[in-house]
Design goal:
Elements (H helix, E strand, L loop, with lengths): L2 H30 L5 H6 L9
Length: 52
């Protein structure tokens, strides 16, 4: 395999992986968001959810 081909495969894999995790992260934040518990949401805002 040529290096360019391998690089493109690796790049697409990373991109899909990142998109999947970001979708999970945003859905998790939207579900757990409650206006009454501002402290709790602020604590967990920067936490990633690595769901598979």
């Amino acid at each position: 395999m040529s290096p360019i081909n391998w690089l493109s495969l690796f790049f697409t894999f990373c991109l899909t992986f990142l998109m999947f995790n970001l979708m999970n992260y945003f859905s998790f934040n939207l579900k757990s968001y409650k206006p009454l518990k501002n402290n709790y949401s602020n604590k967990n805002k920067m936490k990633f959810s690595w769901k598979w």
